[in-house]
TrEMBL record:
Belongs to the FMO family. This is 4-hydroxybenzoate brominase (decarboxylating). It catalyses: bromide + 4-hydroxybenzoate + NADPH + O2 + 2 H(+) = 3-bromo-4-hydroxybenzoate + NADP(+) + 2 H2O; 2 bromide + 4-hydroxybenzoate + 2 NADPH + 2 O2 + 5 H(+) = 2,4-dibromophenol + CO2 + 2 NADP(+) + 4 H2O; 3,4-dihydroxybenzoate + bromide + NADPH + O2 + 2 H(+) = 3-bromo-4,5-dihydroxybenzoate + NADP(+) + 2 H2O; 3,4-dihydroxybenzoate + 2 bromide + 2 NADPH + 2 O2 + 5 H(+) = 3,5-dibromobenzene-1,2-diol + CO2 + 2 NADP(+) + 4 H2O. PANTHER family: FAD_NAD(P)-BINDING DOMAIN-CONTAINING PROTEIN-RELATED, L-ORNITHINE N(5)-MONOOXYGENASE-RELATED. One of its GO terms (molecular function) is monooxygenase activity. Signal peptide: none annotated. Its EC number is 1.14.19.55.
Length: 502
């Protein structure tokens, strides 16, 4: 029986299926349309476009990359209100881009993909969806991003808590914190953004810190009406502004390779803490004990001053247990709580968050098995044994210093080149050679050894439990762009179309 014969009535057949409607999936869809390929579907598990920027709506949610950089190069927006935009403004931008390119017409919302299986006889992928339907496609692009499955800590007694528990990525807009006793756990990028806002609402806020982050001042400013007019009237000047921001961000890559350089900036940042926090003991607790850059460097002007408020307390003891109405710390102290806010981040290891997402490739290949030791891909985009499957922001393409949209655009260009070359050759699939992928990853891991992420004296979400960094690209972003500019034919096995084989 051919695989076509197995297709049920709920099956849709397309050339390309995209999984995820965030910046990555949208970019892919736009570039397919520009290439004249309308035979695709975008599958989004949520009910709107924007991915991270659709789901993360906690108070104070904003981007710590400048707006003119954190937007598509081909969809510049002269009207950004501030150097750094809030979630709502970014989401409005996303909606505008989506409308301009008619992306909704190609999108199925509430469409959660639960598995993907390759049929090498038909040279087709079948994607299974949670509602029981299937999509059959020649290519599929996994654009779900690494930061979409919230991580819930498993504290003793957590189930017995009678109050409200809110995760930063699943904010309950209807819950009123006014006058409540709130315990917030975690001090990462999300927490430092919502803490100042929660502090203003809550009766009492306890901030539980396991590891202090390094925080640099936010060079925030509003764009004047004149700047916006100039950017609108002279797009070249807007592009120049973007280039300037790009280069200043890119310069941050230097301390990553030279932790001693990073150390030089630490005294100034300690002074920043002492300047902003009145209580000396609290200020001391807020100083990190690892090298700047080892964990993501955060930016804020209003996080530290929050600790000058009478209703805010910093706790550095670990959480021992949670009771019906309180949180107990490792030193035995107990804090009454109406609400616990979890700023505890995301499950970022794809081997864990994709454990129920079965992917099978060429005969005998299962991604969970192939990634048993570590998630690996070639250029973060293709995986040997999984023909015509592409990932955006896959292994080792994350950034600690610049806009991820730059990486996404590079990857999408690469995927488009792969699809175009395959079509031109009339082949059925392309599959990256295993030795090419292995050499790429061995070299990458060697290069990571000298970086602040491995030598900076911290553990971060950039690393797997064994310390291996499968999250970040350890070079300048233009080096990634150069590597992904075109698909090198020699890196891949090209499978002639089925008709030619028989
Ligand atoms: O998550 P995180 P996040 N007990 O993993 C603590 C992006 N982002 O949501 O450091 C006690 O960074 C944990 O402590 P420790 C950005 O890429 C971007 O804040 O592991 N504490 C840490 O303090 C970012 O990196 C923007 O010791 C526990 C915190 O929880 C990524 O999202 C804005 C704990 C988790 O921090 C994730 O950021 C927001 C436990 N059991 C987010 N478990 C932009 O502006 C965890 N923690 C673009």
């Amino acid at each position: 029986m051919t695989s076509q014969a197995k297709i049920n009535v709920k099956t849709r057949r397309v050339k390309v299926a995209i999984v995820g409607g965030g910046f990555g999936g949208m970019c892919m869809a736009i570039k397919l349309r520009e290439a004249g390929i309308d035979d695709f579907v975008l599958l989004e598990k949520g009910n709107g476009m924007g991915g991270t920027w659709y789901h993360n709506s906690y108070p104070g949610a904003a981007c710590d990359v400048q707006s003119h950089m954190y937007s598509f190069s081909f969809e510049g927006n002269p009207d950004w209100s501030h150097r750094y935009s809030g979630q709502q403004e970014i989401h409005n931008y996303i909606e505008g881009v989506s409308q301009k390119h008619n992306l909704r017409q190609f999108t199925r919302f509430n469409a959660e993909v639960t598995g993907a299986h390759f049929d090498d006889q038909a040279a087709l992928w079948t994607l299974n969806l949670a509602d029981g339907s299937q999509v059959v496609c020649q290519h599929w692009v996994l654009a779900s991003g690494p930061l979409h499955v919230p991580s819930f800590p498993n504290f003793k007694g957590m189930d017995s808590f009678k109050g409200k528990i809110i995760h930063s990525a699943l904010w309950d807009q209807d819950y009123d914190m006014a006058g409540k006793k709130v315990v917030s756990i975690g001090t990462g990028a999300s927490a430092i953004q919502y803490v100042p806002h929660v502090a203003k609402e809550a009766g009492h806020l306890t901030v539980v810190q396991r590891t202090p982050p390094w925080i640099i001042p936010r060079d925030e400013r509003a764009y004047s009406g004149l700047s916006k007019w100039v950017f609108r009237r002279f797009p070249a000047l807007r592009k120049l502004h973007r280039l300037r921001l790009y280069l200043s961000n890119e310069a941050r890559v230097l301390p990553i390779f030279n932790p001693r350089l990073a150390k030089l900036a630490e005294p100034a940042l300690k002074a920043f803490i002492n300047y902003q926090v009145k209580d000396k003991e609290t200020a001391r607790k807020l100083v990190p004990n690892y090298t700047l850059g080892c964990k993501r460097i955060l930016i804020s002007n209003n996080y530290y001053p929050t600790f000058n408020r009478d209703n805010v307390e910093l706790v550095t003891e670990g959480v021992k247990e949670i009771r019906e109405n309180s949180v107990v710390f490792s030193d035995g102290t107990e804090q009454q709580a109406d609400c616990i806010v979890l700023g505890t981040g995301f499950i970022v290891d794809p081997r864990i968050y994709m454990k129920d997402f079965e992917i099978t490739g060429l005969p005998g290949r299962r991604l969970q098995d192939d990634w048993k030791d570590a998630a690996q891909a070639y250029l973060g985009t293709t995986v040997s044994g999984y023909p015509n499957m592409f990932q955006l922001v896959g292994p080792n393409t994350g950034l600690g210093h610049n806009s991820i949209i730059f990486m996404i655009e590079s990857q999408v260009r690469y995927v488009m080149d792969a699809i175009t070359k395959l079509d031109k050759r009339g082949d059925a699939w392309l599959d990256v050679k295993q030795d090419v992928q292995d050499r790429f990853n061995d070299k990458l891991q060697d290069e990571l050894k000298g970086t602040v992420w491995q030598n900076g004296g911290c553990m971060s979400w950039y690393q797997q439990a064994d310390g291996r960094n499968t999250a970040l690209w350890p070079h300048a972003t233009f080096q990634f762009m150069a590597r992904t500019w075109t698909v090198n034919m020699k890196d891949y096995n090209w499978q002639p179309a089925i008709e030619k084989v028989s």
